[in-house]
Amino acid sequence: xxxxFCKIISGxxxxxxxxxxxxxVAFDDINPQAPQHKLIVPRKHIATLNDLQEEDNNLIGYMAxxxxxxxxxxxxxxxxxxxxxxxxxxxxxxxxxxxxxxLGGRHMTWPPG
Length: 113
Ligand code: AMP
Ligand code: ZN
Hints:
Distance between the termini: 31 Å
CATH topology: HIT family, subunit A
CATH superfamily: HIT-like
Bound molecules: adenosine monophosphate, zinc ion
Shape: globular
CATH architecture: 2-Layer Sandwich
Number of strands: 5
Number of helices: 2
CATH class: Alpha Beta
Radius of gyration: 14 Å
Strand content: 15-25%
Order of helices and strands: HEEEHEE
């Protein structure tokens, strides 16, 4: 499958991996939008949030738990951080394998762009 994140997960394309286990891989975003910008990606290929099945509920919860733990490790948990999942082009999704952005290390404004 011609999927960038599947290739990072398989090791065919390099990335700065900061955490991985049997369910998820987390690595530095190549074009960081904050001092800390990590991507938490499930090993399972799911193209968009619209493709989520009920069987994926635990996986999404696990991605959030991973983000929480990484935020703590990165020392951004107390100041605050943002989790973003873009769904489809209109929301800015460019890689069609679901992922959580974990952004922190600077003040965030609202609403997002
Ligand atoms: P999205 O626009 O929500 O689909 O997010 C895709 C993210 O993947 C963007 O923030 C990109 O900077 C990031 N990205 C693209 N290619 C790579 C890569 N080879 N390694 C790490 N991050 C990447
Ligand atoms: Zn994929």
